[in-house]
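Please fill in the sequence for the structure shown.

STRUCTURE ENCODING:
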């Protein structure tokens, strides 16, 4: 089964066949306890025609619809409406799980956990998010299942995401290639950069933003020095980029014979000894500032920052979920809003450096 946008392997418009009940058998489905008698009774009492069941054509095993099959037998029917699935057995199991978490009688947590465990073994190249979507669990739960089953899962350096694209587990090399491409061809579309570097469009956008602020294309490894790239690799054409205002100050060089002229630092609302260096710390202090929390405009600004803070932990999930047909528009919109914030930051930086002037941000 390929991982498409909806991961569906059949369509409700596929032809329906009338198949004898005795030609069908039960598959090893995701329900460990089999059919639920109460659910069978509920369907039987409804007295309405039920949707076609889904059957694996090569084995004639029921992928989805065992309760409906049981109801048909209790009603004395000899045939039942069927739609066929022509994929492999492992993919048929995934399809059964997906159907049973979306409609009818929901799978229990135990059933979903067992299903996710099985899928990590039969589809080891699928990403945690793809398996989570198929099994109705969270990506963190799937990651924990994968770690517990690591001895039984074939090792792989790649994962297939929800969009069906193969990505490396370590995107460092792809990020470096993207950084070199952006440095050599600044006007190259990000979609083309992503394709040439073998990374996602969202990752290519992140690489460009990192280079624009003077950082390495790849995030710092755990244990590396604060603000230091994994190997110091920054495209030469982009090396002298401006430093982020929230980044730690660079180490001071050895003092020369004559001390240099000191440039006054921008004014900050907090004491110099307690100057925050992380966005979370800055936002915490801003929330306590009466000039912000007691005014309409200040509260509006805090709400914008709060919304941004809530989105940051979800960046990866949001990027993976972006539909490809409108990715260019999303990139353009993100660039536009980033430019607005950059304009505000630049204006405020200038205003704090010249306190005697009364400048206002243009509307």
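FILLED IN BY: designer on duty
SEQUENCE:
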């Amino acid at each position: 089964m390929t991982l498409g946008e909806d991961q569906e392997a059949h369509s409700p418009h596929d032809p329906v066949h009338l198949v004898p009940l005795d030609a069908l058998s039960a598959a090893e489905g995701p329900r460990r306890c089999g059919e639920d008698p109460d659910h069978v009774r509920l369907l039987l009492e409804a007295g309405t025609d039920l949707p076609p069941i889904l059957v694996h054509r090569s084995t004639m095993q029921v992928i989805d619809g065992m309760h409906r099959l049981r109801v048909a037998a209790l009603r004395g029917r000899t045939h039942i409406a069927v739609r066929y699935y022509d994929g492999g057995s492992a993919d048929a199991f995934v399809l059964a799980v997906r159907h049973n978490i979306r409609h009818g009688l929901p799978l229990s947590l135990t059933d979903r956990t067992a299903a996710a465990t099985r899928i990590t073994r039969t589809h080891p190249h699928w990403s945690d998010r793809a398996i989570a979507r198929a099994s109705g669990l969270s990506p963190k739960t799937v990651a924990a299942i994968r770690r517990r089953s690591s001895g039984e899962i074939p090792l792989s350096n790649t994962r297939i995401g929800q969009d069906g694209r193969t990505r490396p587990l370590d995107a460092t090399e792809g990020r470096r290639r993207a950084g070199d491409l952006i440095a050599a061809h600044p006007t190259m579309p990000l979609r083309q950069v992503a394709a040439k570097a073998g990374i996602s469009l969202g990752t290519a956008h992140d690489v460009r933003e990192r280079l624009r602020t003077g950082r390495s294309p790849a995030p710092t490894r755990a244990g590396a020095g604060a603000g230091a790239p994994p190997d110091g690799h920054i495209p030469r054409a982009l090396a002298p980029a401006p430093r982020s205002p929230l980044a730690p100050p660079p180490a001071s060089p050895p003092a020369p014979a004559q001390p240099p002229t000191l440039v006054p630092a921008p004014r900050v609302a907090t004491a110099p000894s307690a100057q925050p260096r992380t966005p979370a710390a800055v936002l915490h202090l801003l929330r306590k500032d009466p000039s912000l929390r007691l005014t309409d405009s200040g509260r509006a600004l805090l709400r914008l920052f709060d919304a941004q803070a809530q989105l940051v932990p979800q960046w990866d999930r949001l990027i993976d979920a972006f539909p490809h047909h409108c990715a260019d528009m999303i990139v353009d919109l993100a660039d536009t809003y980033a430019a607005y914030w950059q304009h505000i930051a630049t204006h405020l930086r200038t205003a704090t450096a010249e306190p005697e002037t009364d400048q206002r941000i243009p509307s």
